[in-house]
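#help-structures
NK: newbie question, is this the right format to request a structure? protein is Tudor domain-containing protein 5
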Amino acid sequence: SQQAQLMEVLKKEVRAMLIAAKAGLTPEQLEEQYMAMVCKPLPLRDLGFQSTLELVTQMPEVVRICSKNGTLILKAIADDSTKGIAKLVANQKVKTRKTSKKTATKANATFPSKNSKNPQSFQTLSARTPVLPATVKAELQDLLSSSPLLLADLGKAFLRRFGRAFQYRQYGFLSMFQVFRSMSDSIVVEQTKAGSLLVLRKYLASTVEQEEEPQASAAEMPPLEPICETESFYQAAHLMDSEPVQTRLVDHLKQVMHDETSECHFPLIPLQHQGFEQFPSTPEIPPDAVQDRRLCSLPPLRRRCLVGVIVEFAVSPSQFYIRLCSTEESNKLQNLMFEMRHVYSHKVASDKYIMPASAVRPGQLCCVMVSSWWYRVIIHRVINDQEVEVFCADYGHLQIVQKSSLRFLKWHYLKLPAQAIPCSLAWIKPVEGTWSSSAILLFKHLCRFKELVGIVDEYVDGVLYLFLCDTSAKQDVYLHSVLRDMGYADVCGENIPSQEFEELNPSALYVQPSQKQGNAEVVEADLRLQLESQDADSETATLKQDGAE
């Protein structure tokens, strides 16, 4: 029957969610996780159940119900097909350890011999904490850019602004407070009589510096939308009148937001504001529009350096794109997204940079709006009169968009190198000649919403070959080893050119190698996780000797 089929599908989904949660889930958390993953509530009524607890009691082969301190906890019962994943999750730590940059840089990294069939002799690396995607961080900052917000109101405000719930648990966080601790460099949680208040740190910092020794430039992080004096702003201001620093913050915001005409304005970019009023209403291409130029790539990373990375887009273990973490360029990308949204969201400016049909051609660098954010893209192909396929230079994916959403890229936004780096896992190949769907799903699961450690091996035809390591477990988990142990990959001790990238590598087609890369220079990664073996010369000789043998 349909109910029986639905129940079997639901059992697989519930088991997968519970296996991913080492400590288990409460019934309420299971409901939230299911909504986040499937985008609809648990089908209780369709199956004739009144509650989630009643549902799971009918899954004795899938769910084990435990009690901890009076709270019901649901845990998974693995079957033969999921025992491997359950074992990996069981090794995850409950708490992560912190390793300072100073300590990390003193460590030695041990690299495997190319003749080794079991390359797991790498240095143990420090554990990682959950990481929010850059776009989600930007959305939270956007939400607080107009006024502070009570933590209790965050969920409703996020849903109202972005049209979806803020499901922080899917990124590995256990609580809202853990989320904002990870963003303590940009968001402050202030305690007020009304509850916890979320405030952008730049407001507090600029207020204090203005009274003591002004150093911060207000134009460093422009607001995403025109700032208006709203009722919610004054409500937040009223809540913050109880403490001296918060009072100064409110006065500062009121001063910034004051306008004699009581209209919306852009206080942080006055020159651009003046330019908006003077834009001509002609179809001519603006002089600062990028036409026949390409973005540059990031300088190449030094062999054997260790870098913090996020896999932004994955097709297979042989074709994926990473973005470097904790680098100056990475922070600049977030600032760039803020500024582009600020500029292109103004209708007059947006209309000025509309692209005529003659400019919509393959290879054209431009920008496009997706879900209220603007991205730097290159047109890959024109599909029809309404649609084009574009390559996102900072995140690595291809996407079909409407021609009407394209805009010329301003010359100023050409300076930042393309942030997406085309990559392949080093030293492995698929057992079956091509990657199976199961291998691809496992690889994507191992990468999802995690900051990993990448160990650079070499570049081949513009593609970076590296090892990826998940340091959130008791023992470091190398992704190539997991694929091998699950029977999906063979370790071959050399880098076989990626068949997928040979068929299509948009980065090679549209992104210009950096000047340093063109001059065959290499630079050391400016990352807190970077290290290099102290006896690099001797190990290089050893690897060469192994290769000769």
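mod (FA): yep, format's fine, and the tokens are attached above. The first helix runs from residue 2 to 20.
NK: thank you!
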